[in-house]
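Re: flavin-adenine dinucleotide structure - here you go.
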Amino acid sequence: KNRVRTFARTVLVGVVLGSGYIIWRSYDQRHPGEQLPHDPSLPTVVVLGNGWGSTAFLKDLDNTGYNVVVISPRNYFLFTPLLPSVTVGTLSSRSILEPTRFLTRHLKRKTEVYEGEVYEVDPEKKTVRFIDNSEIKGAVSGTEIPYDYLVYAVGAENQTFGIKGVNENACFLKEVWDAEKIRTRIMDCIEAANFAGQPQSEIDRLLSFVVVGGGPTGVEYAGELHDFLKEDLGNWYPELADKINITLIEALPSVLPMFSKQLIDYTMDSFKENKIDIATKTMVKEVKEKVVVAQNEKKEIVEYPYGLLVWATGNTARQVTRDLMSRLSSTQNSRRGLLVDEHMRLIGADGIFAMGDCTATNYAPTAQVASQQGKYLARVMSKLHKKDQLLKELEQAKQAGAEPAKLDSLANAVIRASNIAPFHYSHQGSLAYIGSDKAIADLPVFSGNLAAAGLATYYFWRSAYISQLFSLRNRVLVATDWLKTKVLGRDVSRA
Ligand code: FAD
Ligand code: NAI
């Protein structure tokens, strides 16, 4: 009896403390304090983008010594690893967004955040030009601002390899509106298939969900789609659910080439069990309005009729990045993206740092890399500020005729502050969700690799991502969505 009482008391204390912590953190987050004002004597750091790289940068930045301006076409950070879950309503889109102002209002010095798309960077004049490309515009919808330092992290856009019909007929999965569009279209296909008198051939086509690209984006989306089908659609559309088929088309011999062989085999077996067809060694050549045209390993042309097509074949450089590369064509000659040195400085330009998916480095274009680069650059900026301060002090000491020992010590401090270690990437492992409450993980342990898969890995995947969400608010929202989906199921309204 006593044990039960002690246990109940411990749980109660835990709940009270936990709730208190959540309330206190939420209050603190929602009531930012005073900030230092804009100081025209300080250098201006312009940050392009508010994705993984820029957000990690802003989160760790001490901007006492800088005026910071953030420019991005969207006014929020998107937690991309959980985006596939939004396509079927496992998570609500708002749960994985974080307004950038929630972050910048907590910085030490006032920071400007402009919702705008940068279309030109002039590395000579050190300026950027940007426009408001949203539906509602004021009298001014385009301008130019100068920078002393530019943090360039605009990410990449969807790769289509110029394949005919992709842009017109396929959905992508990069932004939150892509996921919402997919969610609506899934239900649209199902309702169209359910329409009175629909011929069988059209039902079959409309219920064919095709995914092109067997990288992690394509695989995770296929896994989520399968869960929706199995856990929800079967109950509400019993006559149609059996007819739904999911096909994943991949040009290489296997999906997920970045994972270890046993995890690739595990994923392929799990997909087979879940009746997700995988067509490997099959290269899509053209996308028609209702049919994907591909070439298989025997060089035969194969056609895949579809109701919904999701295209996930990786990244390519954005137009603004390509323009910047052509301005610096004597040093920027990689087709993959911007070339940077080991300190993330853009080669051939002064005062520009570039990171994340817009760069061409030896690292994979992942959130993990971009966020580590963002944190690194925040440290670099602190060191640069310290160096500038010491240089000023040295100059003043010289003018005041300070003793040689004092001058030597200041000069040595400048040298120390100038000595910035190069960026070092620490790989924390690769994780992917593959559907049916299973995830796969390649984790570096000691000097080897641990390949894990299954239900336990799925809980690890969930806890890893919930802990990586940037705010407590998002953690609460995501955890609540997971609980809602488990208890109440997913919504099938075509909202
Ligand atoms: P992004 O995060 O893409 O940010 C780019 C920013 O630039 C955005 O804010 C954008 O609005 C802004 N921008 C665009 N154009 C302009 C412009 N002209 N002017 C100004 N701003 C501009 N990686 C992992 O490590 N683990 C995962 O589980 C994972 N899952 C993913 C799932 C999906 C569905 C996708 C699409 C990607 C996933 N990734 C994952 C990859 C990861 O999201 C990217 O590598 C990461 O977002 C790169 O960060 P970034 O800062 O370079 O670019
Ligand atoms: P990707 O580049 O990883 O994979 C694209 C796949 O499409 C490739 O396997 C390629 O062979 C295939 N492909 C290309 N053209 C094709 C064609 N015409 N026909 C058929 N197949 C074709 O792209 P993805 O999945 O969009 O990922 C982009 C980046 O984001 C990667 O670096 C990835 O690691 C990262 N990411 C990581 C995740 C995770 O760690 N869980 C989740 C999602 C993305």
